[in-house]
Specification:
Blueprint (H helix, E strand, L loop, with lengths): L31 E4 L11 E5 L2 E5 L2 E3 L13 E5 L6 H4 L15 E4 L11 E5 L2 E5 L2 E2 L12 E5 L5 E4 L13 E5 L2 E4 L5 E2 L13 E5 L2
Antiparallel strand pairs: 1-3, 2-5, 3-4, 6-8, 7-10, 8-9, 11-13, 12-15, 13-14
């Protein structure tokens, strides 16, 4: 372009440094989700929650969540089950002793088994086991004969993540970077779709990945 701002042949500008034709740009920062460890279950029996922090980061700095893909944000809460809460009133039926001629009256007494701690897969069941005699609690029982307080249990198959095929890369120019997306669903082995909260968020496959045009 000459002093009259008219286009001319490049040969007329050979004595000048040519400005770059391309430069990097960013339409929107691409942040990453950073995950904390799951906390302990909020209860010691029954159903509770495990909680972790999930924050959006970019350049090792915490950012507003708009910097990250909110669709791929991992779960911050996970349901947990620690088995049925046991109560002494409900767990035991102590036989009435009608004769005082019985010797060695201390015996192990057991309550009923709780429900399985897991809603699917393998878990455990729990019951109360105490030593009692005709007067109540006792310490005279043989520990070698103490019945089990826990046993394993199974509650059927667990749901799992199913990942569909990756979509085409969003990059259009050769050598340029873009993104690929795919759907990741929580489902039962039968194919029944479930809410994402029913699957383990820690094992969820990626829904977005960086790609480049061929």
């Amino acid at each position: 372009m000459d002093y009259r701002r008219q286009l001319v042949e490049e040969s007329h500008c050979g004595h000048l440094e040519m400005p770059p034709r391309e430069e990097r740009c960013m339409r929107k920062p691409c942040g990453d989700w950073r995950l904390g460890d799951w906390g302990d279950c909020t209860v010691t029996c029954g159903e509770g929650l495990q909680i972790r922090y999930v924050e959006c980061t970019f350049g090792q700095q915490r950012q507003d969540e708009s910097f990250c893909d909110i669709r791929s944000k991992p779960e911050t809460e996970l349901r947990c089950n620690r088995g049925t809460c046991l109560t002494p009133e409900d767990d035991f039926k102590i036989a009435v002793i009608t004769s005082n001629s019985v010797t060695e009256t201390s015996h192990w007494r057991v309550g009923g088994w709780s429900s399985c701690s897991s809603t699917c897969g393998t878990g455990w069941e729990r019951r109360r086991v105490v030593c009692r005699d005709e007067k109540g609690d006792s310490k005279a029982c043989d520990l070698k004969l103490k019945p089990d307080e826990f046993r394993s249990c199974k509650s059927g198959p667990c749901p799992s993540w199913t990942a569909e095929n990756w979509a085409n890369c969003s990059a259009t120019a050769c050598g340029k970077s873009g993104l690929q997306t795919r759907r990741v669903l929580c489902s039962m082995p039968t194919g029944q779709a479930l809410a994402a909260s029913n699957c383990d968020a820690r094992a969820k496959p990626q829904e977005v990945q960086v790609c480049s045009a061929p």
